[in-house]
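Just curious. Invent one:
>
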Amino acid sequence: MSAVARSIRPFASRALSQKLPLAAARRVSPATGFPRGMEVKKYTESHEWIELAENGKTAKIGITEYAAKSLGDVVYVELPQEELEVSAGEPVGAVESVKSASDVLSPVSGTVVQGNAILEDKAKFINEDPEGDAWIAEIEVTDAAELDGLLDAAAYKESLDEE
């Protein structure tokens, strides 16, 4: 180890071990109340999730892991048509399983950009990755402020514990 590295190492260790205030670690956009440069995921009481993209304009919608487990083996997913305009609480698709069928409600208002084509050929992918790549629709969000009325991850988990 070089003499320079030996002299910097104690300082770097102390600097890295210090805890910075959360405000210094991330900045919040005053327009939306959400962190910039991060994806924002929210939940509904009817077990849908929405994840706002970094651009703050588009979002992906899907069903939660809890919903996927409750449905059982998914056999069919009805995807929305592109350019479909939806309001918060309106169906944006449907999921059918061996047990039952359920509408997927849009958590916010917007216009459908696309449905997840992977689910056309492999509906059971929802059981494998419900809160990841098995999203159902991508929408252009009309009003990002609607996300404020949704549950964050901790509140959603708490609502499941109450069921």
User: Anything to note?
Assistant: The longest strand covers residues 91-97. Residues 1-38 have pLDDT under 50 and may be disordered. The first helix runs from residue 3 to 17. The beta strands are 40-43, 48-52, 58-63, 74-78, 85-86, 91-97, 101-105, 110-115, 137-141.
